[in-house]
Each structure stands twice: as C-alpha cells, then as structure tokens.
C-alpha cells in the first residue's frame, strides 16, 4: 500500500507540470484501461455504513485488482462526448443468500467536460456523466441508470490518469443500488495532419497547405513582398502592413483600407478614416460647412443668429429683433409704440356711431399685423375710445366704450389674442382738437391703442 501511494503521488506531480487539455475535436478519441470497485447496498450496510467496512473481504466493497474495466469515448462537440464502457467484478448477492456472484456491466454514457464551462485548467480535466446500461448479476440481468463524475489528470499531451465514481440503479428481479469506482490509464488520440507536413492540425496555421514547423506549418512564401508571410497574410496578393496582417493602408492614416470609408484621403480613426477639416467632429463628406465648425445636428454648420443677440434662430422667438436669452430672444420693452401710433392714425368714427368705417378697416389691418409680430406677442394693449362734445356726457361715455369694443372685436377677428386687449371709454373728457369746428370734432371721435405697462 505504501508503494502504491508513492506511485500515485509521483504521477500527480508529473501531471502538475503538464499543459495538456481535455479531449477535443483535435483528439476526438479516448481509450481507458483500469480496475474497478463495486459497493452494493445490502442488509449489512445498515450497520457498517453505506460504503461498507472497507475490509475488502467480499462483504461490502468488492475490488478486482487487475484489468477489469475498459472504455472508449468519442468527442462530439461543445464539451460533450459519448462513452461506451464495460466492466466486470464479483459482488455481494443483492438478493437471497449465497456466495458472491459475477457482475458484468455494459454502459453507454453522455459525458460533459466541465472545462468547457469554466475554462481550461491545464492538467486537471473534470467531467460529469449520465447514461444507461445493461447489467448482468449472476444469472439475472436488467437495465440500469448511471450518474457520476470523475476527472482525468494528464501526464502528457495524450496520456493521463482517469478516476471515475458513479451511482447505478439496476432493474433486475429485485431492484438494487450500487456505487462503482474505477482507476485507470487513459489515452486520447485521433489528432490529424491534413497536409502531411508533420505539424498537427491543432498547431498548424495552414492546415490545408504543407509548410515548415518554424512557420507554424505554413510555407515560406511572401507573394506580395510585404514582409508578412503568406501563411499569416490576410491580403497575400496586395502589399500591406504587419499591423494589419498584411493588408494595406493606402492613405497611411492608421485605418486599413477594408475599414476606411475614405481610403485615399488621410483621416481620423473616429471617423472611419475620413478627414474633418474644421475639427467639429463631422466628416467632410457629411459637413455642409467644411471650413466652419458646427454641430452634427446642423450638418456641421454653425446655427444662425440673424439679429445677433446671442440667441440662435432655432430657439429665438424674435429672430429679427434683438432680445435677451432670458426672454427667448425677444425685447423686454415694447419698442414699437411709435409704429403703432403711426399706423393707428385715422381710426375715426361718424357722429353718434361706433361702426368701423371702410377706410378705418385698412388701418386696423396694419395695426393687427404689428401686434401679431413675434417680438410683440408678450405685450398687452389698451384700446381707448373717445367722442366729441355732441350730445350728453353720459351718452358719449357709452358711445366711447362701444367704439373701443368695436375696434377690439375687429382686431380679435384678425388674429390678435383677446387676452392681450383691454378696452376703456373716456367719453368727451380727452379731446385732442377743438369741438368748435367740424374738423376738430371729427378728430376727437377717435380710438387710440397704447401698451399696458
């Protein structure tokens, strides 16, 4: 037993220096030879523990020290493989009384390499398996379910030590459960060399073309004379750069031609090899103002500010009239009062009437246009009605209010918001001319429009 421990430790020490990987598509076959031990759950297990007394007296754990288990496995892909395994042993009789009986099992298992899920671990190669098998126990036989785990400890690229431990539930005239453990030597093989150059496919950079080992299995040729051997040249017939695996960068901007949207004009990597003359982050080909920086959202052109008030036109509510940004580019003070006064000259009425005269309608149309201009929309206005001295003061007060309301109604119908307009009548109290003459009384029968401050 002491010598066996020393041998196992020596093999594990050797395995710790190995860089071998698991069974894979380059070594798809695996052959394993070894010995196995079986522990069948019997009545004696109730007092000695499920795994038995370990006295190796045939009572609980049964071991055949010579070759007693053989398996062959084939890698399928993505970590999965199929294994066909056969084993023989002598076991406690699972039913009835009597001496030990011969056991023989033939199993077909699906194996999964855990390195495929967690990454390669070098020499250590753990796996899980599940499958079905036919089991012969003495003169009886039955189908069994297999579940288990194990690992391979690789000594070299192709040779390793295999340990497997599994659970079986066997369906014979009397169902029983058992554990089967095995230790053996495993060998993986099947590596190919398609081009016959002595370099295995897994290490051959040119697996279909014969070459030299010093060039990774590729031939010593460089058709385009760019210093990149054809074996590693992605563009073998066009001279290129090593940093681009032999592919060209015609304009020398650090972007290889296959990824360069402007392969003949040096540009920026961030713009896929295209230039940006004004440095605004918009490639020249997409920039409507190639020499003046501007945002991408405006096709590389600066936003216009017609009134030069520092508020760009797209957010300036008064594009042609300067005003602070705090007021959306519109003036905070009404600057068009004189314009309104001038436009409103001539809003006069016939004696005793509040109807809008035809010539006054034209005047009011111009006034409405002024009040609706963007820079004036924030201001409110008072429409003030007046009369001459004809008639009673009370009658003239009502008439002045009617004239003011008539003008308001007209302006509202022309699109001026009603909440911006107020009306007030002054009657005959505020004449601007003499009531002693016909012309003076005409001038007094008027409406004025003023900003409400």
TrEMBL record:
<keyword id="KW-0406">Ion transport</keyword>
<dbReference type="GO" id="GO:0009279">
    <property type="term" value="C:cell outer membrane"/>
</dbReference>
<protein>
    <submittedName>
        <fullName>Outer membrane protein OmpA-like peptidoglycan-associated protein</fullName>
    </submittedName>
</protein>
<keyword id="KW-0813">Transport</keyword>
<keyword id="KW-0626">Porin</keyword>
<dbReference type="Pfam" id="PF00691">
    <property type="entry name" value="OmpA"/>
</dbReference>
<dbReference type="InterPro" id="IPR003367">
    <property type="entry name" value="Thrombospondin_3-like_rpt"/>
</dbReference>
<feature type="domain" description="OmpA-like">
    <location>
        <begin position="336"/>
        <end position="453"/>
    </location>
</feature>
<feature type="signal peptide">
    <location>
        <begin position="1"/>
        <end position="22"/>
    </location>
</feature>
<dbReference type="InterPro" id="IPR006664">
    <property type="entry name" value="OMP_bac"/>
</dbReference>
<dbReference type="InterPro" id="IPR011250">
    <property type="entry name" value="OMP/PagP_B-barrel"/>
</dbReference>
<dbReference type="InterPro" id="IPR036737">
    <property type="entry name" value="OmpA-like_sf"/>
</dbReference>
<keyword id="KW-0812">Transmembrane</keyword>
<dbReference type="GO" id="GO:0015288">
    <property type="term" value="F:porin activity"/>
</dbReference>
<dbReference type="InterPro" id="IPR006665">
    <property type="entry name" value="OmpA-like"/>
</dbReference>
<keyword id="KW-0732">Signal</keyword>
<dbReference type="GO" id="GO:0006811">
    <property type="term" value="P:monoatomic ion transport"/>
</dbReference>
<dbReference type="InterPro" id="IPR028974">
    <property type="entry name" value="TSP_type-3_rpt"/>
</dbReference>
<keyword id="KW-1134">Transmembrane beta strand</keyword>
<dbReference type="GO" id="GO:0005509">
    <property type="term" value="F:calcium ion binding"/>
</dbReference>
<dbReference type="GO" id="GO:0046930">
    <property type="term" value="C:pore complex"/>
</dbReference>
<dbReference type="InterPro" id="IPR050330">
    <property type="entry name" value="Bact_OuterMem_StrucFunc"/>
</dbReference>
<keyword id="KW-0998">Cell outer membrane</keyword>
<dbReference type="Pfam" id="PF02412">
    <property type="entry name" value="TSP_3"/>
</dbReference>
<dbReference type="GO" id="GO:0007155">
    <property type="term" value="P:cell adhesion"/>
</dbReference>
<keyword id="KW-0472">Membrane</keyword>
